[in-house]
Amino acid sequence: MDDHKHSDQANATHVVSYRHYALIWFGLLALTALTVSLAGIELGRWVIITALAIACIKSYLVLSIFMHLRYEDRVFRLFGTVAIVTLLIFLVMTFFDYAFH
């Protein structure tokens, strides 16, 4: 009986409204416009940092909302977190090499 109950919970679907998707999409468009507009402003080294920060926000929105990572099991989220941390390590090592070379 418990196995049947567990399988029903595992197969449960989540419903996200079209309005919610549209708001996230408009937010992504606004962040893209912000990235493009910041490219024309002379900020020195801060251009790269702000562009990467905006890209991180956009990737979080896509991963959590459009790819439904928010509704996945903890193990799947852990694998995603490990991949992101690995990417961050490589980015930090690259920027340190670029900054001090």
Strand content: under 5%
Amount of helix: over 70%
End-to-end distance? 64 Å
In total, how many beta strands?
A: 0
Largest sheet: none
As for the number of domains, it is: 2
SSE sequence, one letter per element: HHHH
Shape: flat
Poorly predicted sequence stretches spanning 5 or more consecutive residues:
none
* SS-based class: mainly alpha
Describe this structure in words.
With 101 residues, this protein is mainly α. The protein folds into two domains: 51 residues; 29 residues. Helix content is 78%, strand content 0%. The protein contains four helices and no strands. Helix 2 runs antiparallel to helix 3. The longest helix is centred in the last third of the chain and has 27 residues. The protein is flat and about 55 Å long.
List the helices and strands and how they pair.
Elements: H1 2-10, H2 18-39, H3 46-66, H4 74-100
What is the gist of this entry?
With about 100 residues, the chain is mainly alpha-helical. It is about 80% helix and about 0% strand.
